[in-house]
Structures are given as structure tokens and as C-alpha cells.
Design brief:
Structural class of chain A: mainly alpha
Strand content of chain A: under 5%
Largest sheet of chain A: none
Largest interface: A-B, 138 and 122 residues
Number of helices of chain B: 9
Largest sheet of chain B: none
Number of domains of chain A: 2
Shape of chain B: globular
Number of helices of chain A: 9
Distance between the termini of chain A: 15 Å
Strand content of chain B: under 5%
Distance between the termini of chain B: 49 Å
Oligomer: heterodimer
Chain lengths: ~180, ~180
């Protein structure tokens, strides 16, 4: 399994760097996009959904489509998304961890090689992710990395719900590794 | 202005993606390991970032340099959060890490990107009933207004609590153990 931990940064270093990035982006967002919130991810995906939706005349007045296709912060976060892809590419190339992979190795070990099965799970999972992020007003980045730092009541409830549902789902998908005192 | 927006987006995304991938936050076994309560590197990373940001944001706020605007609480936060968490458990990573994973060469993340956008599109189509059911009323998300106390009376215990959780899981669980 290519799970080489020796090349990873320490969690403390990564965490501090992310918090400095959050503070820095707050000021730039305030200056160029008239918003008082650090960076998030969901609006970048929302931009794709919004541009797609604005192709349909009947959806021109839809508040969600309008918000994501017209507001400048969604435009910025769309490019943030592209930057994330490039950043992931650069980091994995520089640390020699770039690895084209069709299915996660762990998934294959427990759920088999079937591409159709894994892709069906990916599609259902990501649709739920998109719907849930839109409804709860942000993803792990917006609601936990930023929202918990602001001690927002809304984000505390959202973030705890992420974990509660995630933990239950993970136990259903991996009942053997998840149960009891199995330390293997 | 457009070019500045594009460059700013690309730069922040690049740095965030670089940090996520380099720290190992994007790995499927790490995300699932956290949800199975066996690998806490991501939790330690998150709580470090949260604690540091919390102190920085409120210090800068006290200096009058910025204003923190908390997210309000409505039923969407709970219901949307549960839907999101289910999706995260099924998929094995979250939206930001998904994008970085595309860069790492993980093909299925491309499908996930379209799925996520589709999920938001479906949300847009259902906005009327969803709004009526979950977003019709909200309460102010500012915990200091709700409790009526000085903000540092909440921030300092929160920082101690987060640090204690980091200390505890760091002592009890190794980051290098293979859990699968």
C-alpha cells in the first residue's frame, strides 16, 4: 500500500499554515469581494452549478443559481478550486507521492475491484456532499476550519453533524475495522 | 479587477492544496481512519488550525482590524450537516481534499467534482420546499451575544479544550500505524 508517512508534514505545521492562510485571505476577500469571511470551497462548486443552471431560462430567477453565478466570491472560489488541483499536483510531484489510482486501495481490499460499484458510491456520496454543504452553508473548510474558529453556533452544529453522520456511515461501510478494540 | 480575482483564487487554492497534500490530509485511509476513530492526524491538524485562527481572528478583532461575522443557526445546519457527513463517509474525503486529490492523480475525484456540483444544482431546484422546511427561522450565531459574556471567557476555555483533545489523541494514537 502506498501510504508513506515519512514524507508527510507534521500536523502542527500544516495546521498553523492553514490558519495563517485563513487570516490573510480574510483581508483580501474583504478588499476585493466585499465579504467578511475567509476562504471556503463550496461556493467554487456552486459556481459550476450556477453557470450550468443559468443555461436554463426557467432558472434565471432561482436564488441559489443567481447567488452562485453572479457573486464575485463564487467566481474567486472557482479559481481557488483550480488552484487546489494544481497545488495537490505540485505537492505530490515534489514529494514523490503522485500516484494515479482508480479506486482507493483500502476500498478495494474491503469492497472489491468493481469500478461500477465504487463509482456508484462516489456519485451518491458526492451528490450528498454537495447538497449537504449547500444546505448547511459550507463544507469542512467553511464550517470547521473557519466556522469553529469563529465559534459560530451554526458552524458548531454543522461540524458536529458532519462527524456524527460520518462516523456512523464509516462504521456501516467498515464494520470489522471499526468495531471494538481491534488495533490491527 | 477580474484578473486580480482569478490570480487571488488560484494562489489561495494552490497554497491550501499544497498544505493539504503535503500534510497527508487528502488520504482516503486517513479520512476513513478518523471516522473510524483510529487515526487522528486530520483531527489534530484541524483543531490546531481552528485554535490558532480563533485566537488570531479575535485578537485582530479586538484591535479593530477586522470583524468576525458568525454563521447563524437554523435547521439547515443540522440536516445539511448530517447529509454532508453521510456523503463524506461514503466518499471518503471532503470537497477541498477532493480537488487536491484530482491533482494527485486520483481519477475518481473528477467524478466526485461533478457529483458535488450536481448536488448543489439539485439543492437549487429544491430551494422552495427546502427553505420552507429548514431555513424559515434562524437564531443569531454569535455565541457571545447568546451567552451575554465577554468573548475571552469563551475563547480561552475553548482553546484549552481543543488543546486538551489534541494532547489526548496525540498521546493515545499513533499517526504511523496502519489501520487497514
Amino acid at each position: 500500500m502506498n501510504f508513506d508517512n515519512s514524507k508527510e508534514w507534521h500536523w502542527f505545521k500544516g495546521g498553523i499554515l492553514v490558519s495563517l492562510l485563513s487570516v490573510a485571505t480574510y483581508f483580501v476577500f474583504a478588499a476585493i469581494a466585499e465579504r467578511n469571511y475567509p476562504f471556503g470551497i463550496t461556493a467554487g462548486f456552486g459556481f459550476i452549478a450556477g453557470k450550468f443552471g443559468s443555461l436554463f431560462e426557467g432558472l434565471n430567477e432561482n436564488p441559489v443559481i443567481k447567488r452562485f453565478s453572479e457573486k464575485p466570491d463564487a467566481f474567486i472560489e472557482f479559481f481557488l478550486l483550480i488552484g487546489l488541483v494544481i497545488g495537490g499536483y505540485a505537492a505530490s510531484k515534489l514529494s514523490n507521492t503522485f500516484s494515479p489510482e482508480t479506486i482507493p486501495v483500502v476500498w478495494e481490499k474491503y469492497h472489491g475491484k468493481s469500478l461500477v460499484k465504487r463509482y456508484a458510491f462516489v456519485l451518491v456520496g458526492s451528490i450528498l456532499l454537495g447538497f449537504g454543504a449547500a444546505l448547511s452553508g459550507g463544507c469542512t473548510t467553511g464550517n470547521i476550519l473557519q466556522g469553529w474558529a469563529h465559534l459560530s453556533l451554526g458552524s458548531i452544529v454543522a461540524g458536529v453533524s458532519f462527524f456524527a453522520a460520518g462516523i456512523i456511515t464509516a462504521r456501516i461501510l467498515y464494520p470489522k475495522t471499526g468495531g471494538g478494540n481491534d488495533n490491527n | 479587477m477580474t484578473i486580480i480575482n482569478i490570480l487571488f483564487g488560484l494562489a489561495v487554492g494552490f497554497l491550501f492544496g499544497y498544505i493539504l497534500t503535503r500534510t497527508g490530509i487528502t488520504k482516503y485511509p486517513r479520512v476513513m481512519g478518523m471516522l473510524l476513530l483510529k487515526d487522528f492526524k486530520i483531527l489534530k491538524f484541524m483543531l490546531t488550525a481552528v485554535t490558532s485562527s480563533m485566537i488570531l481572528f479575535y485578537l485582530l478583532g479586538d484591535l479593530g482590524l477586522l470583524k468576525v461575522v458568525p454563521k447563524n443557526l437554523d435547521w439547515g445546519k443540522l440536516v445539511g450537516g448530517l447529509i454532508f457527513g453521510t456523503g463524506m463517509g461514503i466518499l471518503g474525503y471532503c470537497p477541498g481534499t477532493m480537488a487536491a486529490r484530482i491533482g494527485e492523480g486520483k481519477k475518481e475525484a473528477i467524478l466526485a467534482l461533478f457529483g458535488m456540483a450536481l448536488g448543489i444544482f439539485i439543492y437549487a431546484l429544491m430551494i422552495k420546499p427546502v427553505k420552507a422546511a429548514f431555513l424559515s427561522s434562524e437564531i443569531n450565531g454569535d455565541i457571545f451575544i447568546q451567552l451575554g459574556v465577554n468573548r475571552w471567557i469563551v475563547i480561552i476555555p475553548a482553546a484549552i479544550l481543543f488543546s486538551a483533545i489534541i494532547y489526548f489523541v496525540n498521546k493515545k494514537f499513533s499517526d504511523d500505524k496502519k489501520n487497514f
